[in-house]
Design a protein that fits this description.
Strand order of the largest sheet of chain B: 7-6-5-10-9-8
CATH architecture of chain A: Orthogonal Bundle
Largest sheet of chain A: 3 strands, antiparallel
CATH topology of chain A: Arc Repressor Mutant, subunit A
Helix content of chain A: 40-55%
CATH class of chain A: Mainly Alpha
Shape of chain B: elongated
Number of strands of chain A: 3
Structural class of chain A: alpha+beta
Oligomer: heterodimer
Number of domains of chain A: 1
Distance between the termini of chain B: 87 Å
Radius of gyration of chain A: 12 Å
CATH superfamily of chain A: Winged helix-like DNA-binding domain superfamily/Winged helix DNA-binding domain
Largest sheet of chain B: 6 strands, antiparallel
Number of helices of chain B: 18
Distance between the termini of chain A: 24 Å
CATH architecture of the largest domain in chain B: Orthogonal Bundle
CATH topology of the largest domain in chain B: Hypothetical protein af1432
Number of helices of chain A: 4
Largest interface: A-B, 20 and 23 residues
Number of strands of chain B: 10
Helix content of chain B: 40-55%
Strand order of the largest sheet of chain A: 1-3-2
CATH superfamily of the largest domain in chain B: Hypothetical protein af1432
Chain lengths: 89, 509
């Protein structure tokens, strides 16, 4: 999956929107799933996709992984455009 | 300020009423009963004549044919009705200049009026009873819109706080999961940076004399080279935060003290990514995070002390055992390092490595129960003597079994003489049934025995011993462990340490 491909996935867009609106957030898959109202396992997979795209940072420990938003201003600006174009009706 | 708030509230209420599905349904429903009437919403508490003209009279189906003077007169009349509706807070019927019928009701709650809703341009009179029902309906719809607004406000206020709380909880989980001091502080710094969206984070701890803050970690996302500087207690923001025991906040910095029973250090953040100043909310979040960081730091410190104590006890025990036959029970540092390096090669976790380290030191402790003449016998052991030797792993476990910290090392000690093909002792375990630590210890222990000089035996060279280990891979030893062992032995630092310990400084095998 690439940045453009994110537009097609509702769950990826929901996660992006959550982190874009709450840029100081660090949360576990369970937490993110609660905030966006989606299945935890699907969220977990989507979070890892976003880590691969360097949109999210994974803070891994033996017991859990926390995910937080990128600090790259250019990437954040690209994401803002994607979210703007994919606004929920 | 209050006026601005009221205005914003009024505007939002009207936006909601305009979009309200309930109001649309009510309009449709009453439009069937009050045929011919058109509906309007007037957004002002005290509308002017012009407002009434624009919103009501200019939309009148007769407006095009009316003279300006007549429109003004009509608007004035309706404005009077609106004023009455505001005073009486009830629905009022009126007849306009052109003889059309209409009604107006104030959108009000208690003493507050937010605007007006009404209908107009009906040729027939409107039944008062129907208007009363409409009034009751309208009241419910307004209350519904207000409740929606309250809920929305509550959501907007609570959600960011709930997310912040969840973040703090996640951070707590992330920092509590490590007891390694060297890993913990950089992790706290990185997480703090992420939460505050800041550019630099520095963690300093108070020295034992409580005069200076010692820099422990600084993470700066803009610079590669960072100079760690000491800071006097009382100087600069970090020093002041420690001295006064409270956060010190400036536009571009936020120093939060780490308070246990006393102040133990400070986390300082600098320069937000968006260049905005640090806020009271940031301060609150950092104070909560600092409280959790203190717990994690104290736990890591206690763990480190406990570890030192355990290692001290193990070394003391080995020293006591060693007094019987010096050089027999205390392995050289290089062998412990080889065992640990093999463990790392085989992806053992921190706890497993710790157990391996303990077992490396004490694996032959049980030999203290084997008579010295048996251990030192240069000839082949008799059956009875061999049985005595076979008891030493269990005897070693018996020595340490009362030390809880060493419990995880007992399987390594007990099974380090098991052979990969099942021909070892005490249980004749095979392959993966033998704990990994014990399989590693079997190789290291055999290697140690071969290359160490003993009064009763000539030591093998490193090359000879390595060849013998290789030759026994798959029978006596786990081939994977042997493979890792060979890799480890090629490491320059380990090789140098081994040669130095075996042959003295500057002499190779």
């Amino acid at each position: 999956m690439d940045l453009a491909g994110l537009r097609k996935s509702n769950i990826h867009l929901k996660i992006l929107r959550f982190f874009h609106e709450n840029q100081a957030s660090i949360d576990t898959p369970r937490g993110v799933a609660t905030w966006i109202g989606e299945d935890r396992l699907k969220v977990k997979r989507a979070l890892e996709d976003l880590v691969k795209l360097q949109i999210l940072i994974a803070h891994r420990t033996t017991s859990t992984t926390g995910y937080s938003y990128t600090r790259d201003a250019k990437l954040i600006s690209k994401i803002a455009k994607i979210l703007e174009q994919s606004k929920p009706s | 300020m209050e006026n601005t708030k009221n205005h914003a509230y009024q505007k939002e209420l009207f936006d909601r009423l305009r979009k309200s599905q309930s109001l649309k349904r009510a309009e449709e429903c009453f439009a069937r009963v009050i045929k011919g009437a058109s509906w309007w919403l007037l957004e002002k508490r005290k509308p002017s004549l012009q407002d009434v003209e624009e919103v009501i009279c200019r939309k009148c189906p007769l407006e095009k044919g009316l003279q300006r003077r007549k429109i003004k007169k009509c608007a004035k009349n309706i404005l009077g009705v609106i004023t009455r509706a505001a005073e009486e807070k009830t629905i009022i019927k009126f007849d306009c200049e052109e003889g059309l019928h209409g009604f107006v009701s104030a959108i009000a709650q208690a003493d507050k009026i937010y605007g007006y809703v009404g209908g107009c341009y009906r040729k027939k009179d409107i039944s008062t009873q129907i208007l009363q029902i409409f009034s009751a309906f309208l009241d419910t719809i307004i209350k519904e819109a207000q409740k929606e607004m309250e809920l929305s406000k509550l959501y907007e206020t609570l959600r960011p706080r709930a997310i912040a709380l969840s973040t703090v909880h996640t951070v707590h989980r992330l920092i509590s999961s490590t007891l390694d001091f060297n890993e913990l502080l950089p992790r706290i710094a990185r997480l703090s940076l992420q939460i505050m969206r800041a550019q630099r984070c520095s963690i300093k701890l108070v020295d034992s004399k409580r005069k200076v803050l010692l820099p422990k970690v600084t993470v700066d996302l803009r610079q590669k080279n960072i100079r760690l500087k000491k800071v006097r207690v009382g100087r600069w923001a970090p020093g002041k935060a420690v001295k006064f025991g409270r956060p010190i906040r400036g536009r571009d910095y936020l120093a939060t003290p780490l308070i246990d029973e006393d102040v133990i250090g400070v986390i300082t953040l600098y320069d937000k990514l968006d260049k905005k100043p640090f806020t009271t909310f940031d301060q609150e979040i950092m104070s909560t995070l600092a409280e959790q960081a203190v717990i994690a730091i104290k736990n890591a410190q206690l763990y480190k002390e406990q570890e030192k104590l355990t290692m001290g006890t193990i070394k003391s025990l080995a020293k006591v055992l060693d007094t019987r036959a010096p050089g027999t029970y205390i392995p050289r540092t290089s062998f412990v390092k080889i065992a640990m390096a093999i463990g790392q090669q085989m992806h053992m976790d921190e706890d497993e490595l710790k157990s391996l380290e303990y077992a490396s030191i004490l694996h032959d402790a049980g030999e203290i129960f084997v008579p010295e003449e048996v251990l030192a016998k240069p000839a082949k052991l008799t059956g009875e003597e061999y049985e005595m030797v076979k008891e030493h792993p269990a005897a070693g476990v018996a020595i340490i079994k009362h030390m809880k910290a060493l419990k995880s090392a007992t399987p390594i000690i007990l099974y380090h003489h098991e052979n990969y093909d099942g021909s070892g002792y005490p249980k004749g375990l095979k392959k993966d049934m033998i704990p990994l630590g014990a399989r590693i210890m079997a190789v290291v222990s055999a290697f140690e025995a071969m290359i160490t000089k003993k009064p009763y035996r000539v030591a093998k060279t490193l090359g000879e011993a390595t060849e013998e280990i290789k030759a026994n891979a798959g029978t006596q030893f786990d081939p994977k462990v042997v493979e890792a062992f060979l890799k480890v032995l090629k490491k320059k630092d380990i090789r140098a340490l081994l040669e130095k310990e075996l042959y003295g400084p500057g002499r190779a095998a």
